[in-house]
Design a protein that fits this description.
The complex is a heterodimer of chains A (198) and B (460). With 198 residues, chain A is an alpha/beta fold. Chain A is built from nine helices and eight strands. The longest helix of chain A has 13 residues. Chain B has 460 residues and is of the alpha/beta class. The chains are: A alpha/beta (198), B alpha/beta (460). The interface between A and B is large, with 55 and 70 residues.
Chain lengths: 198, 460
């Protein structure tokens, strides 16, 4: 879970669809688990797109295409809209993705990714389009995501973009720390605040 | 300095601002349901941590609960295990728990307001995106992930970046047959499902002020479907009247003190929002969705757009088996679902009943009428709506989230059309392969008695 994040260079899996909602990332019937088994959620990532209704593999879906693979998922704009289910982030992490690239993320899902040490990288529409083109032209092309420098580089074109992340969260990701670790260390502050404000 | 309603409540809950990072926000109320909480409790156990402020946390199962025979054990063992886990966790950590068959049980977003647990000025979170519902009472309420649920259990605080503010003003009078649900579906159709992402929305204007509390709850419920973190309405006499006398509402001198404070909870006249949007209530007609996200909606007499050539749009229409340029009026439907945290309140049952009264359910339509809580169920019976519905061929089921997301047995079969008062029409949302058309209780009622998509105004 708490994997330290630094620089990732990998091939990509392209999903050029917009408004991919968390019901597609992990359908509701897989939310009944009471534990956080990443393999279970990873196995059911995009379940209803990966499998046909009869349970056979949907060969047309990108995750079933052996040409594509890697630790970086590249998706169309408004990725992760809808439900707050963190199971969606567990499924993405459980499948083995460390980075999701899109031109726009839904708020709650973006936080859920960060809280599971998956890095959401917001790029411009132009960069995203070119990235899809590069992957299409050469599925073996790589992308470098450099968290310390906050840059993403399309190695096929050499084009690079800066991405935003707040300094606190960057520190957490690079050092394998989570928000609960932080909150547990300042309980005295919370109690002091309660005395004055509650 | 002039502040917005959102600023006032947010600022009153800041414990500290983390340097170059998020804000540590104090949370007044945490609601937990069975689906998004078990891993959070497991996390506490693994860290050896107790719940920091157990009196601020309320738990109840709603997603998995069957809508029949709730007095018997749940048949699906996996659903049962999840519901049992919540009861066990609540007991172990000393938290209030409204279990199945408890008269206080129901959908968490229906129960909070109706029990007086949700109050103006509060910060409220729950591992559920429709937590935005509670904003209708003048609270800052938003959905969170399970890691964040664990944060709040452990510290009664959450780390969040401050969202931007948006005011959506809807002035004018709503036409015949137009409800809060139609207002929301209309806004989504104009703003898309990402139009308010990054923002916290305040709804204002005479059309919003004119809504009942139930209508405001419906409106705020759907804020997340435009991508907003939350939506809110400044509390007023409608709000105070709704809260007064409810179980957990302040009483006596506390009530007067509370109302005096709540009256200050409104945006200052000169407050500046990061974005302002305006709509005219007169432009809104009864709405229906034709696609696979809630932004793909249109007036019921309109035609499916033919100017969108994107892969996503085509995929969506293919899933629904609809075509660009066609009207949905007269299309045969198979299921009708009245309920969910969106439209499972008493006013929704009144609206549905008013339209089916003296008519009969179409033979080929399966209708699921699911009250949002036992309290709503009791009110339905008290008002005699159950009798009218029965005469028209409808039965009332037991409360829960039900077919909104089909985690219990209430699944729409693959390929079938469902006119649903819920909040999402995503692929497979109501069951694998199910085709959902989102609409108001009135549009759902019109479809239920005619068996086809019908403009409810023709039956009014």
């Amino acid at each position: 879970m708490k994997q330290k994040f630094n620089i990732i260079t990998s091939t990509c899996v392209p999903l050029p669809l917009e408004n991919v909602d968390t019901d597609q990332i992990i359908p509701a019937r897989f939310l009944k688990a009471t534990t956080r088994e990443e393999k279970f959620f990873g196995d059911n990532l995009f379940r209803d797109w990966r499998y046909n209704p009869d349970g056979s593999l949907n060969k047309d879906f990108v995750l079933n295409n052996p040409i594509y693979g890697g630790q970086i998922l590249v998706a169309g704009k408004n990725f992760g809209s809808g439900s707050s289910r963190e199971h969606a982030a567990w499924a993405i992490a459980g499948y083995g993705f460390r980075v999701v690239v899109s031109s726009f993320f839904a708020d709650i899902h973006k936080n859920n990714e960060l809280n599971n040490f998956v890095l959401p990288v917001v790029v411009s529409e132009e960069f995203l389009k070119e990235l899809f083109d590069s992957i299409h032209a050469d599925p073996k092309m790589e992308v470098e995501v450099n968290l310390p420098e906050q840059t993403i580089t399309n190695k096929a074109t050499g084009k690079s973009e800066h991405f935003e992340i707040n300094a606190y969260k960057k520190h957490c990701l690079m050092n394998g720390l989570d928000d609960i670790d932080f909150l547990l260390t300042n309980k005295d502050k919370i109690e002091a605040w309660e005395k004055v404000s509650r | 300095m002039a502040n917005t309603l959102f600023d006032k409540i947010w600022d009153a809950h800041v414990v500290q601002k983390v340097e170059d990072g998020p804000t540590q926000l104090y949370i007044d109320r945490l609601y937990c349901h069975e689906v998004t909480s078990p891993q959070a409790f497991a996390g506490l156990r693994a860290r050896g941590v107790k719940v920091f402020r157990p009196d601020r946390v309320y738990c109840m199962p709603d997603h998995n609960t069957p809508t029949h025979d709730q007095d018997k054990p749940i048949e699906d063992p996996v659903s049962k295990a999840q519901v049992d886990a919540l009861a066990k966790n609540a007991k172990e950590f000393g938290l209030a728990h409204f279990g199945m068959m408890d008269k206080r049980n129901g959908i968490i977003h229906v129960v909070g307001p109706e029990r007086g647990l949700t109050l103006p000025g509060m910060t409220i979170v729950c591992g559920d995106s429709h937590t935005s519902t509670h904003g209708a009472m003048g609270a800052v309420a938003f959905g969170i992930g399970t890691s964040e649920v664990e944060m709040v259990l452990a510290s009664q605080c959450i780390l969040q970046s401050r969202p931007k503010t948006m005011r959506i003003t809807i002035d004018g009078e709503l036409g015949k047959g137009v409800t809060a649900k139609d207002m929301a579906l209309y806004m989504m159709s104009k703003m898309t499902t990402s139009g308010a992402t990054g923002y916290f929305v305040e709804y204002a204007g005479s059309a919003v002020r004119g809504l009942s509390m139930e209508g405001r709850l419906t409106l705020c419920n759907l804020s997340i479907e435009m991508g907003a973190r939350g939506g809110m309405v400044a509390p007023d006499e409608v709000t105070f009247e709704y809260i007064k006398g409810r179980e957990h509402a302040p009483k006596g001198a506390d009530w007067d003190k509370a109302v005096a404070y709540w009256k200050t909870l409104k945006s200052d006249d000169t407050a500046v929002f990061d974005k302002e949007v305006r709509f005219d209530a007169a432009d809104i007609q009864p709405m229906i969705t034709y696609g696979t996200n809630p932004g793909m909606g249109m007036g019921i007499t309109e035609y499916i757009p033919s100017d969108d050539q994107s892969v996503s749009f085509k995929k969506s229409l293919e899933y629904m088996d609809f075509h660009s340029g066609e009207s949905l009026l007269g299309k045969k439907i198979d299921y009708v679902f009245l309920g969910a945290c969106t439209n499972g309140r008493i006013e929704d049952f009144r609206a549905f009943t008013s339209l089916v009264k003296g008519r009969k359910k179409a033979d080929h339509v399966t209708a699921w009428l699911v009250p949002g809580s036992w309290m709503v169920d009791a009110q339905i019976r008290e008002e005699g709506l159950d009798k009218i519905l029965e005469e028209a061929g409808f039965a009332i089921r037991q409360p829960g989230c039900s077919a909104c997301l089909a985690m219990n047995d209430d699944k729409i079969p693959a390929g079938k059309y469902s006119v649903s008062t819920s909040n999402r029409n995503f692929e497979g949302r109501q069951g694998p392969g199910a085709r959902t058309l989102l609409a108001s209780p009135l549009v759902a009622a019109a479809a239920a008695v005619t068996g086809v998509i019908t403009d409810p105004r023709e039956l009014m």
